Amino acid sequence: MAQRTVLVVLFEGVQSLDVTGPVEVFGGATGPDGGPAYRVCTASLDGAPVRTSSGLTLVPDHTLADAPAPHTLVVPGGIGTRPEVPRLVDWVRAHGPRARRLVSVCTGAVVLARAGLLDGRRATTHWAYCDKLARDHPAVEVQPDPIYVRDGHVATSAGVTAGIDLALALVEEDLGRATALTIARHLVVFLRRPGNQAQFSAQLAAQTASREPLREVQQWITEHPDDDLGVEKLAARARLSPRHFARAFQAETGMTPGKYVDRVRVEHARRLLEDTSRGVEEVSRACGYGTPEAMRRAFLKALGTPPAEYRRRFHAPLPASHPHPVTL
């Protein structure tokens, strides 16, 4: 099998993890002969070293002018995408359509949008820049929630570590699930999160309550998804009336108690389906749904897929030599 060339664009102010995350994934893939499955290289406009937003210096392999024609072109993000960089945008506009796959990480989507390569397509970027991307480029259908979005040969991902998820998905597409799983285990990450997973977990999406009783309730919900998590019970734990608790919880966390519980339970069920062989009925009980049908409705609403199909796509059984689930 011929090596696929992955070219990562470098520029001043690039986010280092946007570069190194995908590079580690593609660089860790082996082909049937045991050799590298990808030829991974980097290039900057003039071939000069670039300083990342965190202060690291990256030395490119090529100038963009003499870089090899890529199968997969990766445009990372970072503070360097905020100002106009006409030469970089012009190069991406000219060469991006020639790549078999065009990929952006984080605010790299801004470069693709400025080059006109996202017009008429669905795309995402770091949550903090989704609104601006939508305002500045109305021809782009910006989707702020998913960790990555694929539209034809163009794939865009959310902030930083989402580039690893997208790269693993591309490796799985090219070389199969076993290869992607081997890389994920080596990097000690999930095999991959599905693209339609929200950019935030429930704990991150919700603000942390300032009052200690409400923070304790948030932690209790996370640790006891199978318990009775109705408003009355939660209010009692916070030593508040149900009405006062519901108002205070939403005011301090930005979401209702019921929505927070729903998100925690779906996330817990996802992890059990991905990392264990427990049956759907057992998982539904462990996550507080009571019945598989209740969990099925929750999955369809949150993820657009039923639990059985989700397990088929994302369950990662480990060999005997790895008896414990790999987690992030």
Overview of the structural elements:
The chain is an alpha/beta fold and 328 residues long. The protein folds into two domains: 4-187, 3-Layer(aba) Sandwich (Rossmann fold), CATH 3.40.50.880; 202-314, Arc Repressor Mutant, subunit A (Orthogonal Bundle). The protein has 14 helices and eleven strands. The chain has helices spanning 16-27, 86-95, 108-114, 130-136, 162-175, 177-187, 202-205, 212-223, 231-238, 242-253, 257-275, 280-286, 292-303, 307-314, and strands at 4-9, 38-44, 50-51, 57-58, 62-63, 72-75, 101-105, 122-123, 141-142, 148-151, 154-157. The strands form three sheets. Strands 5-2-1-6-7-11-10 form a seven-stranded mixed β-sheet, with helices on both faces. Helix 1 (16-27) runs parallel beside helix 5 (162-175), helix 9 (231-238) crosses helix 10 (242-253) and helix 11 packs across helix 13. The radius of gyration is 22 Å and the shape is globular. The protein starts with a strand and ends in a 14-residue tail after the last helix. Residues 215-313 form the HTH araC/xylS-type domain. This is GlxA family transcriptional regulator. GO terms for molecular function: DNA-binding transcription factor activity; sequence-specific DNA binding. InterPro entries: Class_I_gatase-like, DJ-1/PfpI, Homeodomain-like_sf, HTH_AraC, INH-QAR.
